[in-house]
Structures are given as structure tokens and as C-alpha cells.
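subagent[fold] <- orchestrator: predict structure for attached chain, return C-alpha cells only, no commentary.
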Amino acid sequence: MTTAHTAMLSKDGARASWRADLILALLATLGFLAVNAWAGFPALTNAGGDNDDLLRLVEVRDLLAGQGWFDLHQYRMGLDGGFVMHWSRLVDAPIAAIVLAVSSLTGNTTLAEDIAQVAWPALLFGLTMVFIIRAARSFAGDGAVLPAVIVGAAALYFIGIFAPGALDHHNVQLMLTVASLSFLLEAPVHRPAALLAGLCAALTLAVGMETAPYVASIGVGVAALFAFDATGERGIARDFGLGFAGVSALVFVATIPVSAWSQAQCDAFSTAQFVVAALTGTGLAAIASIEAARRSRGRRLLSLGVLALVLGAVLFLLFPQCLASPYAELDPRLKTLWLDHIEEAQSLFQLAAHDPAELAARYATPLVAIVLMAQRFVRGGWRRQDSLVAVLLVVAFVVSAWQVRGSTFSIAFAVIPLSAWIAKWRRRAETSPSRSSVLRMAAAWLISMNSIWSGAAQAASAALATGARITSNAGVDPSCQARGSFATLGRLPDTTVLAVSNLGSPILIYSGHRVFAGPYHRNVAGNLLALDAFLGSDAQAGSIARDHHVGLVALCRGNPESQLLAFTAPGGFLAGLMRGNVPEWLEPIADTTGASLELYRVRPNG
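subagent[fold] -> orchestrator:
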């Protein structure tokens, strides 16, 4: 058999495996959609308190209404003039394209938005499934494909960031990060894969800085593999570096206006991230391409060490502000009354203290996967695939210990070694069938499912719980998360609404009003003004309402933020309003008395 014939068979096999994996991912996506359709797509009418999903749709509406591509102001939130959001247009654009296409065909913008809220997360779910399946195949062979489909689909459904209505950028970031890993696993046998891995790594960083630890881990992994195996990894390191630097440059030009090219932003893609990405990518590609730099392991390590020192010096000298904690300069009141109460920003230890059931659901499968990787290392036979998967899995677990939001990545990465584990016991059960092998295979399946851990933990918590069980009326929206709770507000003439930050995005999406507060760290002035009003006296709140042209005050008694602020300042304006003490400068709007969202009009002479 000739070399050309062998290569042709290899290409045919690769195409066949891609077709099979695409079909499996499509089936998983259709199943995912069927489950959500059976539930009635509840997120389309109730976002469950996810302000980010709602504000993303507000941004898309603003973009389609003519707001500039480079203009990221949210004009209807904060003080007069609004504030600049730190999100990327790279996520707004495809969602806006879906809305524009469907509305052009149907003439119904509301329908178009609903379709976009279903189609966009489903598309990302399908793509993520493709790359999880490909990664599992590269990691453990064909036997890991079926477990990857089942365990992967269950994991992505569990973490919730692909549910209908999920327009936030975390699902995009997870898809791109898993894609980068998958392409790197395939890079030794598919030459373009390394370039694509660099492309995906650059894009996920451009979408948001939350993925910086994972992008850095991928880059360090590629560099380390090249340092210790130049023969097999030289082309991979070169192409990854070129892809990473090249796409970073394209993103910089496409999303940053020329007037802001000299401005460094630590929480969004800007000149700081571009300079670091360009130096990293071109530096790695240069070292891999220059014979003198790559000739021996010592020279490779020395060259990479110099590159690391240069990057460190650039960060320290040019962008020292980005080395500090991302919330180091946040006002102490906002940290205490807002940041410390964001669920996804809780640490592992905080979660263990108040929600041990969620702790088991979020951390069990990644921990099992880490143990499996440790066993691989101890038993020997460590491979490049193991290094790439292990470094991302461990880093994601460490990030999740700091903030629970990192568990969405660690759970997804854990699917790869868990699928390999299940595949191993499936083979043993097939080749040497026995009660022991079958039971171990069944145990591997069960242990790999987050829903099993979640159900077991919730059952244990229920069994240990004491006291009366509190039930809620299914027809009531105590936290004011459903679209219907804002119907009356939406019919009132547009004005400025004084409300807690949890209600900021819902008010923008369900009405034409503007607000001061919203749960975003750049909206410091607007959030502080709302706190001053709610925590201060009736007179202070009235003065703020008069000076800032407030037309309405919105009260949601059951919202956790309202309860927190009332507890913090029991003598303040909000606490009094929740007790029924309405100051003279306000008048209740009769239609909302006793509703989930109560509205008060500021008297003209107030």
C-alpha cells in the first residue's frame, strides 16, 4: 500500500468520524430541544432572575435600532448618559443576525426574538457537543464516543448555560474553549487543527476576560509540549501561535474604535490584551520557527523563559493596573451589598456553608475526573493528550473553588476522562462479562452524572432538614422575575424608575423606562445613587428622586435584594416602604397594590 493510499484512507476515516460525530451532536441537540419544548420554554417569559441574558437582548435591540457598532453605552441604565458595558459585540452580532433574518421573513420582531433565544443557545449546545465528542474520541478512542454523548449532554443540560433564553456569553466561551482543546488533541494528525485551536483561544479571550486562566493554561500547555518534544510539537506550536496572534489582531481592529486603541481596559478586550496576545503568539511562533532557538531542549526552555519574562515586564510596566484583583477598586458598599451576594461569584467554602447539595452537584464529577487523571499519571504511560486535558481540568477546578461560575468549565472538561473511564469498563464488561465488571460499569455511568449527585445530595438534605416546609404559591412571582409582573409598568409613559439592581435589566427589556441600578461593576455611580436612596431617609430619597427626575419607584417585596437592603437599613426609605409607610412625595398606583411588583408615582409637587 502506497503512502498516498494510506493518507487517502486516513482522510476518509477522519471525514467519516466527523460525519458520525456531527450526527450524534445533532441528535443530542434535538433531544435537548425536545426536553425544553416539553417544558414550554419557560425562560422566554421568565428569565429566572438572570439579568445578563436580558441585558444582552437589550444590547441586540439597541444595535438593530441603529446604535453604533463601537458604541457599547447602555444609555438607559445608570446616571444621565449611561455607562459603557464591558461586553463584546462578537456575541451581539450573531444574535442580531438571527433576529434580523427571522423578522425580515415573518414581519414579527417578537417572534424573531423568541426564535433567537431558542436557536442561539441550541446552536452553541450542538457545537459544544461536537467538540466534546471529538475530544473524547481523540483522548480515549471510539469507545468513549457514546459515553461522551450521554454524559456530555447531561452535563451541559445540568449547568444551564445553554437553556433557551441564555444569551449571556458564558456558553460561547465554553464552546470556544472546548473547541480549542479538541483541536489541540487532534493537531498531531490534522495539520490545520493547531491554527484553529489558536483561533478559538483568541476568540474566547476576546469575548470576555473570565476565560483568561483557561487561555493561559492552553498556551502554557502548548509551549511545554514543544519545549520537551520539538520534533512532534514544533509545527503545532508555530501554527497555534500564529492563529492566536492573527485572530487577536483581527478582533482588535474589528471591535475597538481607533480612538480607543491607546486605552487599556482590564475587564474587556483592549490594547492590553491585544499586546499580550500578539507578543505571546508571535513569540511562540518565532521560537518554533527559528532553528537557533529550538535546536535543543535547553535552548527551547531558555527562549520560552525569555518570552515569559518579556510578557511579565510588559504587563508590569505598561499595564500594572491589570495585575490587581478585578474588583480591587470596587466601592466597599457595592462589594458588601452586591458582589458578596452574587451566587455565581461564591467560593467553594461559601457554597458548602449554605448549600451543600449544590456543592456536591457542582464539584463531584470534576473531582472524580481529577482522581482518574492522577491515577493515569501514577500508573505511567502519560501522553500529550493527558497533559492537555489535565491542565485545563485542574485549572478550571481551582477557578471554581474561587468562584462557583468556574464549575461550568470544570464539569464540561470532566466529561472527557469520565467518558474514557466508562469506555474502559464497557470493554471489560463485553470482553470478560461478570457481575463485578457489569456493576463497575454501571457505577461508572452513575458516578459520572451530575444529576445523580444533585438528586442524592438534595435527598440527603431533605432527610436531615427539620422544621416546617415552606411552600410557595405557583401563581405568584415573589422575586419579580416573570415578564407578566412588568406588564403594568410597560404600559406607563417612559420615565426614570428607581428600583433595586436585580430589577434593572427586566425593566429595560419589558418597558421603555430607564433605571439607575443594574448588577454591573462598571455602573458604579448609578448603583451607589440607588443605594443612597433606598438606605437613606424618606427625605433623602425624595431629594434624589427630585434631583434626578425620577417618575416611578418600583418595589418588589419578595426580591432578595429588597429584603437585604431593608435588613441593612431598617430605618431607611426602602424598609419603610416595605412596611407600608408611603412618604408624601409618592402615591401608589392602584392597579399594582398587592401585586408582585408594586409601583409608586412621584407626585409632581413632591
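orchestrator: received. Logging for downstream: The CA atoms of residues 398 and 406 lie 8 Å apart. DSSP finds 25 helices and seven strands in the chain.
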